[in-house]
Amino acid sequence: MNYIAIDLGAESGRLILGSLDHEQLTLSELSRFPNTPIRSGESLQWDIQKLWDNIASGLVAIEIHSIDGISVDSWGVDYVLIDSAGQLIDPTYHYRDPRTKAAVDRFLNEVSWHKIFAETGIQLMPINTLFQLASESRERLKSAHRLLGIADAFNYWLGGEACVEESLASTFQLYNPVTRDWSDLLLKQLDLPKQALPRVVPSGTAIGTISPKLKTEALSGAKIIATCSHDTGAAVAAVPADPATKWAYLSSGTWSLMGVERETPVINDLARELNFTNEIGYCSSIRLLKNISGLWLLQECRRIWGQFDYVELTALAANEVSFRSIINPADPRFLAPANMPDTIAAFCRDTDQPMPETPGQYTRCIFESLALLYRHTLLQLGKLTGERIEVLHVVGGGSKNQLLNQFTADACQIDVLAGPVEATALGNVIIQAMTLGEIPNLAAARALIRKNFEIVRYQAKNPALWIEAYGRVV
């Protein structure tokens, strides 16, 4: 059987074909397109129409004789507003748009952080949907007949039901993971009618068939499936974990998301104080995790420098001096600076460290600092769960960076298993296959991934050096 995973990331989107033939699971990229935000004055917005045009043209070009399922996954927290005529209400704001800064303090003066966390179990971040909606004008919200997450909106336009899949709903900081319903308290505070939020469906729900406007011979029988609409939910479903080990995951890309899989949410004082989050995954599992900064820092440096690719920068970093400069990637100043290299240099100057002077030094600084942040987060996770993690699975685009993987193993003093790179697309595909009955359950799906995709092990080295460096940042 053949499945199309449409994976929308912060830098690009892809259409990926997943094929399962007995025990052979393969992925192949059909098309790729940039996802470039629109800058309008100080505002940052998504070009939803351009994303749709690229998806539609990619789908109609498919020549595979039979596609059984299609599903879209995307980043979380952002949303589209749709009017009563079914039309998109522009603009669709980017989570890094600065409009939320004032809304956070204003909303927290109205509803305490204790109450918000008790209602949602979601960590405090200014990018969250809750604060984005608190930034909206009353006129825009009143004109909205429907609010959908990014991936769920594209599933709807492909021909599916207008619904929100549970993993994406759980990122909104409007959804209660205990009652499994939207929070009446928070909706009332936002003055957002509950009917504007559609029903929430479990991951792995068939929600329709391909729209007649997109129907081709290849797509004529394709079902639209809400897999894990949140890309991290899909990626964690594809973690090739051995159930006999105590494992954690690190989804490494623009953001780094580190956590464990649990059956029930962990909503207590310690989780709130450590700023962990409870997002929902496949089969209503809980992803107890922390969203932390990731390769965004290097992506933004590349945007400023212009002439380097990631392979070149990693090679330069490998030859630089260790621990020359260390930053705290979780510092708010790194969320959306106009010039990332200048911001990194200013942090080093303010903390009496030598400022990076070359792209290699900047890259080494970013990689070492991320690895130390991973150590810090893993220690917090152990404190929260009372368990010692035995192995860390790194998935996503960052898993192919050998230098960063080795730094992560060294800093965390734990074996790192890197891969698969295409975890999000794989998760999307295996959930489709489980929905249509081709794979019996998640354990079988993960075993299938272990069998078909390369996993590279990195073992910890140089413990004394990394422990000393960690002491500089805590």
Characterization of the model:
The chain contains 18 helices and 23 strands. The chain has two domains: 2-231, ATPase, nucleotide binding domain (Nucleotidyltransferase, domain 5, 2-Layer Sandwich), CATH 3.30.420.40; 239-419 and 440-474, Nucleotidyltransferase, domain 5, CATH 3.30.420. The chain is globular, with a radius of gyration of 22 Å. By secondary structure, it is an alpha+beta fold. Strand 12 (175-176) and strand 13 (181-182) form a beta hairpin. The model has no long low-confidence stretch (mean pLDDT 96).
Please give a handful of descriptors for the protein shown.
23% strand, alpha+beta, 2 domains, 18 helices, 7-stranded mixed β-sheet, 474 residues, Nucleotidyltransferase, domain 5, 23 strands, globular
Element layout with pairings:
Layout: E1 2-8, E2 12-21, E3 24-34, E4 38-40, E5 43-46, H1 48-60, E6 69-73, E7 79-82, E8 88-89, E9 92-93, H2 100-110, H3 113-120, H4 129-134, H5 138-143, E10 146-149, H6 150-158, E11 164-165, H7 166-169, E12 175-176, E13 181-182, H8 184-190, E14 200-201, E15 205-209, E16 223-226, H9 231-237, E17 247-252, E18 255-262, H10 269-274, E19 277-280, E20 286-293, H11 296-305, H12 310-318, H13 340-350, H14 359-385, E21 391-395, H15 402-412, E22 415-418, H16 423-435, H17 442-452, E23 456-458, H18 463-471
